[in-house]
Design goal:
Layout: H1 24-30, H2 34-38, H3 50-60, H4 67-74, H5 84-107, H6 112-122, H7 139-154, H8 164-174, H9 178-192, H10 201-217, H11 219-227, H12 237-242, H13 250-263, H14 273-288, H15 292-304, H16 308-315, H17 321-332, H18 334-339, H19 344-352, H20 360-405
Helix pairs in contact: 3-13, 3-14, 5-7, 5-9, 6-7, 7-8, 7-9, 8-9, 10-11, 10-17, 14-15, 14-20, 15-20, 17-20
Length: 407
């Protein structure tokens, strides 16, 4: 039987309101463990219920020694529905591919300005953590440097930029094998790299989404920010770019990523746009804990009114969980912000002082609840539209039948 190795790295429903948090022991006990994951596999290692695995991770995150395995599945590093043996063979192919990419990358020449930027970034990334508080030639820093160098060499659609080292560091310290850390980082960047483009539409969408959520769930706070000229939310830019990575300790940021990765269901082979949306809705109803009847209502409504607008609405939730984390960060400190009468400049300073100190359990609890509540309300709108349409159709049929009596 094939099992992946774990990394030994260590670092010292819906009621949206500030939650009462469970104790540390309770949180730890609820995390998804290796043994719990084994219970979701058949005798050959295939995952029997992908959505249940994601549901468990979404609500409870994972234990540290299981995270290297969990992320490979959550990010879609493995082909769908593979066995232990198939995953072992796939990993060997990835390692071979990485050696080729690495050799090719260092035979080619990156722009000196890019090489210099990567060299500077790797020695100042997460210096507060012992794993990265090393000289440039230390194996940990060299591993991060090679992952970024190879990525920059093989992805010409987006140029290397500051901030990428923060994100790569998450994978380098979590997944011991350099090749697998590289491929997990690459999977993650399939969506996130667009944030690093000039005039990024993804970043613009994040600003739009957070503004919408503030108006919807806390108009009082939005009006306050508007009054002090902060309604543009520019102080949130780093939050969007790095998926809140710097707002928590490194250990806590890994737990935030657990939850985020669990949101992004990986498509099955040959899945059409329509089937992907249906599967996503099934995924969300499971996360919400809907009963069978409610889930069926949502699915019937989506099938009945499926169109480009419905597809885009459902798809918009795949990668948007970090925006709900941003909403939670604002909500957690709302009373302080208003009570202290913070202005545009002091508001920025207020959050700068809280870098790596935010309470991840509090933020995750609120973010999950707002995320699921927003999805639920969107689905309820579809159900109401579906119901109204059926009612209108029924009345029209009755009138039509009645008219026939008088012909």
């Amino acid at each position: 039987m094939f099992f992946e190795c774990s990394c030994s790295f260590r670092v010292q429903m819906l009621r949206p309101r500030l939650p009462s948090l469970p104790g540390t022991d309770e949180v730890e006990a609820q995390k998804v463990s290796f043994s719990r994951w084994l219970g979701l596999l058949d005798s050959k290692g295939r995952i029997l219920d992908h959505l249940e695995f994601r549901r468990a991770v979404f609500h409870h995150t994972v234990k540290n020694n299981f995270r290297p395995i969990a992320w490979k599945h959550l990010l879609g590093l493995y082909p769908y529905n593979t066995t232990f043996d198939e995953r072992k063979a796939h990993i060997e192919r990835l390692k071979s591919d990485y050696e080729y990419y690495k050799e090719d990358a260092f035979h080619r020449t990156l722009a000196p300005s890019i090489v210099s930027l990567i060299q500077k970034d790797v020695v100042r990334t997460d210096r507060h953590v012992a794993f990265f508080n090393k000289e440039f030639n230390h194996p940990n820093i060299q591993k991060l440097y090679r992952v970024l160098y190879v990525y920059a060499s093989n992805n010409h659609d987006v140029e290397y930029a500051q901030g990428m080292s923060d994100l790569a560091a998450i994978f380098v310290c979590t997944i011991c094998d350099e090749a697998l850390a590289y491929f997990c980082f690459t999977k993650y960047m399939e969506y996130s790299k667009a944030k690093f483009l000039i005039n990024s539409e993804v970043i613009s969408t994040c600003f739009y989404q957070l503004t919408r959520l503030l108006k919807k769930f806390d108009n009082e706070l939005y009006c306050y920010l508007e009054k002090i000229g902060s309604q543009t939310l520019l102080f949130c830019y780093r939050w969007f770019l790095l998926d809140l990575k710097r707002e928590f300790s490194l250990t806590d940021s890994l737990r935030f990523m657990d939850t985020y990765f669990a949101c992004v269901r990986q498509p099955e082979p040959g899945e059409s746009h329509f089937n992907r949306v249906i599967k996503d809705v099934q995924h969300y109803t499971l996360l919400m804990g809907c009963d069978k009847e409610t889930s069926s209502q949502y699915l019937r409504a989506v099938r009945s009114f499926y169109c480009e607008n419905v597809r885009r609405t459902i798809e918009s939730y795949r990668h948007s969980f970090p925006v709900y984390g941003c909403l939670a960060l604002l909500k957690v400190h709302k009373r302080q912000i208003i009570k202290q009468n913070l202005k545009l400049d002091t508001l920025t300073i207020f959050y700068e002082k809280l870098i790596r100190q935010q309470n991840v359990d509090q933020v995750l609890s609120l973010a999950r609840e707002y995320y699921l509540l927003d999805i639920e309300q969107q689905l309820q709108k579809l159900v109401k539209t579906h119901h109204d349409d059926l009612l209108t159709t029924s009345i029209a049929d009755i009138n039509k039948k009645s008219a026939w009596k008088f012909l």
